[in-house]
Specification:
This protein is α/β, with parallel strands linked by helices. It has four domains: 44 residues; 106 residues, Immunoglobulins (Immunoglobulin-like); 47 residues, no CATH class; 142 residues, von Willebrand factor, type A domain (Rossmann fold, 3-Layer(aba) Sandwich), CATH 3.40.50.410. The chain contains six helices and 18 strands. A five-stranded parallel sheet has the order 15-14-16-17-18, covered by helices on one side. A four-stranded antiparallel sheet has the order 5-4-8-9, with helices on one face. It has a three-stranded antiparallel sheet with strand order 1-3-6, with no helix packed on it. Strand 8 and strand 9 form a beta hairpin. The relative contact order is 0.11.
Amino acid sequence: MLTRSGLGAVLAAVVLLTLGLWWNYEELVIVAIGIALVVIMAVVVARRPPRASVERRLRTVRVPRGDPVRVVYRVRNDSGHRSTRAIVIDRCDGREVEVDIDAVAADAVEDLPSTLPTRRRGVFELGPLDISKIDPFYLAAGLWRQAERQPSLVTVHPKVYEMTGPQGSSRVVENESTVRRTAADPMSGFVSMREYVAGDDPRMIHWPTTARTGTLMVREHVEVRRPEFTIVVDAMSTVASEEDFEEMVDVAATLAVHALRTGLDVVVRTTNRAHTGRPTPLVSEAEVLDLLTPVDQTDNAPMSVGSLFTQGFDHTSVLLVTGPSGPASRLSASDQTIIIRVGEGAQSSGGVAIAAQDAPDFVNRWRSWS
């Protein structure tokens, strides 16, 4: 394959040959033939297979979105002659990276560290891996595909940003691990006695105290539970662009991981029917990242936010992460919902608590808001 310089050389040879024949100028014809011979020699050299082979080795198999994948290209020359300079061409998620290879001595091995860019979440297979060899005059190039023993897979998960300060609408301080709510469950913790009020559960009447005071007295209990957040990602394709949706998922991951780090129960759901999440709390940061990694936008009958809470809203606060044009649906219990808009042009209107241009902007606004 001719390079741009090679195509220019061929064009120059054609022009010189034409002018030499037209003007009967032998020197131009000789120059044209000379250029043609150089190009032919360059093609022959470039088409000879490289003496060195290249093997990719992954340094990282899981990276946050936007961080590079670290790889090492092992260049091995098993021949008895010094290899020529070449270029390694590798690919990740549709993007190409070129790495220059210097000449490698006979029977030698060299390692070349490099990186591959990431721009969105998912599990990606790297490659294919090619070697491009260019002749010394940069007139022609040959391309050889390297056989790989097994596919190199890399997981690009949401990027998590560092957050500090209170947490959510319940304003839970970082060192607080429980909240107390009144409850009618006899198995919950006893707090005090109080007079009976119409509507109280008769099972809660404490008859010895009632007999002693002559007034119906009931036991008041509270249940001790960990605070719980439910983070919902609005996956409707009309609420955000692809780039903004990636920022939305980063925000959801950041909130969920921070909740876990501060000792809170967190549930992560989405309105994408193929990846709705799960209704039970997550227990580790890895679960959060693995749950959110495959989530994408949908326009095929997405779920409404309300359909994710068929069992009610007790003991949970809902953080709805949507795009600049969202939300696509809302909850009727608006007092338990915090709406967060993320994306270019997001504005705080219509009950939106926080509007941010991207995930880093959200973190700054969240700190001042909470």
